[in-house]
Task: inverse folding
């Protein structure tokens, strides 16, 4: 079901960075790290998780994250998923039946290593992903809230394992962006089964899960573009927020100014930058 064929308008922008390696459990994993020139000490870190069958180069180009990192002053980290023989070129194992890869352990270890080696702010580390990368983002939100201050999910959702067992140790801020005409990861929910892809509920149900988790006491909804609605929830005391961009009629693609009327990467960064820092 999830042999994704994504039609993305990719620019010619490349990572312009060296492909690095990180050993985890005896497996050589690859990643790219973008450090802007003259980046100050204790700067934020943003972890970017590509889609199924994707790679760091494609994701960097689609999101234009490096340009934002240069202008706003943060480091960008692009790990790459491992293949599943005979099925996927690359993937993130967010509790799927077909994979035994320990991506949760890999990503948390990699982030901790980069934080320390580059002198980055452990209280302002964030993660976002698209599609399969969005699934992995929610897996980290469920099991690694002591490492990330906020999370953003674009066209991904929760699998059944995460939905059934998710018990974060800390409240956290969540941004979810999804089109109602997504035929790959459906807005009304991926059916139960599908090797762990399904059973997490519809997007509104997933968003409500996180709203309940932060103990939201304020709700607002308004339309910012002709086809986009924003649902915003907040806990006034803690400052944690959940925001959902529902793009009516939009499919399984990276939203941008041309196809959705708003700049997704800028919105994600603004959400991160204004979220409460991580407090142990």
Result:
């Amino acid at each position: 079901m999830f042999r994704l064929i994504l039609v993305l308008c990719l620019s010619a922008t490349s990572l312009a960075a060296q492909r690095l390696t990180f050993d985890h459990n005896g497996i050589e994993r690859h990643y790219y790290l973008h450090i802007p020139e003259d980046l100050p000490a204790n700067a934020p870190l943003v972890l970017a998780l590509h889609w199924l069958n994707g790679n760091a180069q494609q994701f960097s180009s689609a999101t234009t994250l490096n340009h934002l990192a240069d202008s706003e002053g943060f480091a960008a980290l692009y790990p790459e998923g491992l293949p599943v023989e005979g099925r996927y070129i690359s993937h993130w194992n967010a509790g799927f039946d077909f994979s035994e890869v320990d991506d949760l352990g890999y990503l948390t270890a990699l982030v901790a290593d980069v934080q320390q080696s580059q002198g980055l702010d452990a209280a302002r580390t964030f993660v976002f992903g698209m599609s399969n990368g969005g699934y992995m983002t929610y897996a980290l939100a469920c099991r690694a809230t002591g490492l990330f201050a906020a999370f953003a999910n674009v066209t991904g959702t929760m699998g059944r394992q995460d939905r059934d067992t998710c018990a974060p140790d800390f409240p956290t801020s969540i941004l979810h962006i999804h089109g109602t005409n997504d035929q790959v990861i459906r807005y009304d929910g991926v059916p139960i089964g599908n090797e762990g892809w399904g059973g997490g509920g519809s997007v509104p149900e997933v968003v409500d899960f996180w709203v309940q988790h932060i103990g939201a006491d304020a709700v607002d909804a308004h339309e910012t573009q002709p086809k986009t609605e924003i649902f915003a929830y907040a806990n006034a005391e803690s400052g944690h927020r959940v925001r959902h961009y529902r793009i009516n009629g939009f499919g399984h693609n990276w939203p941008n100014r041309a196809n959705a009327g708003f700049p997704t990467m800028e919105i994600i960064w603004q959400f991160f930058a204004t979220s409460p820092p991580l407090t142990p």
